[in-house]
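Tutorial, part two.
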Amino acid sequence: MTRPLHSVRRGFLLLEMVLALAVFGIAATGFVVALHRMAAVATLAQSELRITRILDSALDETLSLPVLVEGVTDSTVAEAGIELETTIEVLDKMENQDGQFLQEMYRIEVRARWFDNSNWQERAVETWRYGRLYQP
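Running the prediction step on this input gives:
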C-alpha cells in the first residue's frame, strides 16, 4: 500500500510551518530583549546627563560669585529630588612651578546626592579659583 503523494507533502509543509514559527519566535524574543536593554541604557544616559547638567550649573553659579566665602552651603533641586552640597575652602599651601605661594586660591566642590533604584547615589565635581577673579 502506498500513500498518495499529496498527503505526504501536506505533512511536510506542517513541519516546515512549525519550524518557521519556532525560529521566528526565537528571533522575536531576542529582538524584544534587545529593545528593552536599549531603553534601559537610554534612560540611564538621560539620568546621567541630567545630573551632570545640574552639577555643572551649580558649579558655574558658585564660580561666578564676586566674593568667595569659605564654608558649606546646602541646597535642593526640588523637582529632581537632588540634594546639593557646595563646599568652598581656602588652599593655603599652594605654590606655582617657581616655588612661590599662591594667595587666595579656593577649592570649590559641589556634591549631589539623590535616591535612585533603592539606593542613594552620589556624584561630585570640583575646581579651583583665584579669589579676586571677579573683583574690580
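The chain has one domain: 5-130. In part three we will examine how such features are distributed along the chain.
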